[in-house]
Structure formats: structure tokens, C-alpha cells
């Protein structure tokens, strides 16, 4: 095993077993206990529409096997390679295929195919209509984030700091970019984003880079985190959450770095705030929402960067990235509780419990339903009663 991968697994151990690893001005590691959940008066009724077991989920591995929704179908895969297609509205199984190989990064897709990555550093393309394999390509390292596709190319980011674009029809390489990967990073990578002309990718060195889709040539580079400090732990600045694009702005956050709004055409910074997160952001109600590394959910005004509210009663509960859903902002935690906060002031409005093994994968929203995939493989759809 190469030293960088060993370091990543070492840091993963801290993050998985302790609620938070705080890296400050010294090299001391401080473990904080997760806050106990308090009772509150529920203001909304949350209805579970359906739930379905997707094999064994992550099987105890530190993975984020995010499902994908395309049209009326939601697709999900577990760590052992069980791939299912379900009707989005009622959870009825449409088909399933078992690949019987360890899956590390899932799922991506386009109008005709789905894509997932294996622990062996392979990307597999399968037919959306029945899950039959179309092609596979071997990369240089393990992939932990979902591949993304615009139907013409498939873009994959691996844990060794490389981004690869493959021809969606054949799997042949179109271009590759090698970032300057640090020795130590949090286990995980950001999933790229594809626009009509550009591919955006965030890296463990704190850089957000925009590439031309056809050639892979860099268009601009923005620093979301700048390594500081004497130790490798203090210098962690990973971008692990997928950037969000709204109009001409890109919103993203890094660990021990910044929450930033970047001008999409030029890469110039519109505004930024010092912040630390290893999940990601979402937008809603004119706000940018972020789950910080310490478990505080914060809302910032999307235009002015001023703090609108913060919810500190979920500290050290290893929160997922926030998701704006109806009038609420939703986060899930390491014990499988799903918290619905008001987008106006951050107060608790509702809570459900999905799975005692917790939730790590980013949540999905489609047709007024919230889809959550738990660590042990429970895929559930919720809606808020009107």
C-alpha cells in the first residue's frame, strides 16, 4: 500500500471513531462527545412513503454510496455489487443485478447508462434498462465519489488526485488531469460537476478547477482552502462535497478553509467566509447552508454572505451535507436521525429515525420527496404532509 493511502485510512479512523477531529493552532487532537438530542414541539408531519433494503449497504466501510434519480426511476447499489432499479414513486423493484465485486463509488448516470466504481480502481458502465455491463475501464487508484456524465463523456475523480474523462460510449480515455495531491487527506473526494462547456472538480489540496469538457484544459483555478500550520493535520484543506452551481455562481466549501461563492465564467471569488466542512453545501430560501466539521448547521445569505442563523444543538453528530427540502433544511447524523430545520431561523421542525447504523450518503430530492440511503442499506422516501 502506498503511504498516501495509508495516511488516508489513518485519518479515517479518527473521523469514524470520534465525533470530530479538531485541528487548531496546536497538533493536539481533541475528541468531543456528540450532543444528546433534546425534545421539541414538532411543527410538521413527516410521512415515510416507502422503504426498500439495498443489500447490506456500506457493509461497515466508510463509503457514501449515493443513489441516483433519472426520470421516474431511482437506482442504488451496495458495497457487494447488488444494483437495483426502483420506481421512484412507490419503491417497486423494476430489476436487479448482482455484480459480486466490492463497490467503492456510486452511482452516476445519463440517459442510457449507469456508472459505478470498484475497489480495484475500475469504472463499470451498465445499461439503464437492465443493468447489463457495457464496458469497464481501469484507473490509477480507488474511486470514492460517483462518476458524472453528460451522455458524451464520463468524468471520474480518484483518491490519488486525478480526474479522468472517458468516452461514454466506449470507455476510452479522452483526457486526464493530475492535481498536486497532499500526503494526508480526509478519506473521500468531491464528485465533479459537468455544465454544457465545463467540468468542475474540487481537490484535497483545496483547489477548485474548471476544465474544458472536450480537451480537459484548465480554464481557471480557485483556492478554496490554503494549507496553513506546521503539521500535516493542521494543513488539511480537502474539498469533499460536490460544488453547487446556481446561475453564474459556484458554491463550495473546504475543510479548515472557506465557504466560497465563485464566478463560474471567470473563477473570480464573489465572496467567502472562513468555514470548515467535509460534506458540502446546499441552497434554498436565498441562503447557502453548510454542515460544519463540528456539527453546526449554518445559513448564510446567498448574496451578502452574512450569517442568517446557526443551529448548534447537533454538534459532533457527524452530519451529512444539508438538503433544502420544502420549507426545511434537512441533515442526517451518525445514529440515523434525520433532522428537519426551518430555513427561516434554523429551529427544529421535525425528526425521524431511519437506521441506527447512521446515514452518510448525500440525500436526494425529486417530486416533493426526500430520498435517504442509510449506511446499512435502507433506502427510504419521505414527504412532508401538507
TrEMBL record:
Domain Pyrrolo-quinoline quinone repeat: 81-311
Any Pfam family matching the protein: PQQ_2
Localisation: Cell outer membrane
Cross-referenced InterPro entries: BamB, PQQ_b-propeller_rpt, PQQ_rpt_dom, Quinoprotein_ADH-like_sf, WD40/YVTN_repeat-like_dom_sf
Keyword tags: Cell outer membrane, Membrane, Signal
Family from the record: Belongs to the BamB family.
Protein name as it appears in the record: Outer membrane protein assembly factor BamB
